[in-house]
């Protein structure tokens, strides 16, 4: 898991993406620009964060889940 | 014949859609579609902790910034575990101070190796040869290179191919032998007699009607 550690917490790159979602960015391209991460990593990372329940997918866009919001303060 | 096919898998061709995959890499789980919109160089190496492969990984890392400027991502592959890949890239960094910035597929099941025809049993039945697949932003295979186990790849040629493909796509031209960015490009050959005659009046540098070059 690239964005979630074995203990269930987001990694540094996972946290970066969650913070970008908290800031209101929703498209993978916007998150990539904000975080400076390659787009392919953001796409796979957002998928992983969604599977872990920390983000929600709506079409091509993403948003922070309640669970994700608790981790990013 | 069937036995050879079983060992080698499908041999993809230029102009075909790149076979889809979902894989475990040193950067997490990735799908081919994650690279949509970018150029992608998918390359295989025979094995981790081997000398020629190590020189190639250092060389790929050195051209990584140039590839990034051209909108190209790199993705390595071998039939090794992700733990082996991680140990190897850490070792390369420790010994040579070169950080490997791109992901590497752990293709223990050989699913991707077989889908891309990376195993050539005449060389090795268990290791991938040195393949390079250049895949465009629409995920169409645009170039395939195969090198034997004993010959390390030429990064300069890989960059040159990327430049040539991007120039071709942008300008609807072709590139002559040994072309380099800034050199004249080849105007596509005319398909009618009228076009052939018109061409000679257009100020191109023509050897004859079928071989005309121009500056971009």
Would you write up a description of this structure?
The complex is a heterodimer of chains A (73) and B (216). A two-stranded antiparallel sheet of chain A has the order 1-2. Chain A has 73 residues and is mainly alpha-helical. In chain A, 37% of the residues are buried. Chain A has helices at 12-22, 28-35, 39-51, 66-71, and strands at 55-58, 61-64. Chain A has a single domain, classed as Arc Repressor Mutant, subunit A (Orthogonal Bundle), CATH 1.10.10. The model of chain A has no long low-confidence stretch (mean pLDDT 91). With 216 residues, chain B is of the alpha+beta class. Chain B has six helices and ten strands; from the N terminus they run H-E-E-E-H-E-H-E-H-E-E-H-E-H-E-E. Chain B has a five-stranded mixed sheet, covered by helices on one side. Chain B is elongated. The mean pLDDT of chain B is 94. The interface between A and B is small, with 12 and 11 residues.
Number of helices of chain A: 4
Largest sheet of chain B: 5 strands, mixed
CATH architecture of chain A, by name, is Orthogonal Bundle
Mean pLDDT of chain A: 91
Name of the CATH class of the largest domain in chain B: Alpha Beta
Strand content of chain A: 5-15%
Observed structural traits:
heterodimer; A: 73 residues; mainly alpha; Arc Repressor Mutant, subunit A; two-stranded antiparallel ribbon; 4 helices; globular; B: 216 residues; alpha+beta; Glutaredoxin; Antioxidant, Horf6, Chain A, domain 2; 2 domains; 5-stranded mixed β-sheet; 3-stranded antiparallel β-sheet; 6 helices; 10 strands; 32% helix; elongated
